[in-house]
Write the structure tokens for this entry.
Amino acid sequence: MKHAIPKDDKSLLRQCQVQVFRSSGPGGQGVNTTDSAVRLIHEPSGITVVARNERSQLMNKRVALKRLRYQLEAANYRPPKRVATRPSRAATKRRLDAKKRLSDKKRSRRQIEE
């Protein structure tokens, strides 16, 4: 399903539900006291991304937006339609003539049966 991707981050954030929470993992006291992890849920598409690597909520939000843009572009991608092609008549004739010449050359190498 194709969704329009806004050019600026503010417009994209307006389409998202933003959740901040305490991140798990290494970091000790810093992780346990600050809500620095960010989860973005893009409401039109339902795509969810999480960023929890940085200590700053702002930095995590930027990383999450970048990931969301990447996921939306991947979801919107449609491969181009294949244009069926076929060899021209002259190309087919050249190929068949070359095969004929090669077969004649090989036939001339055979031993003559008596």
Observations:
- Strands lie at 16-21, 37-42, 48-51.
- The longest strand covers residues 16-21.
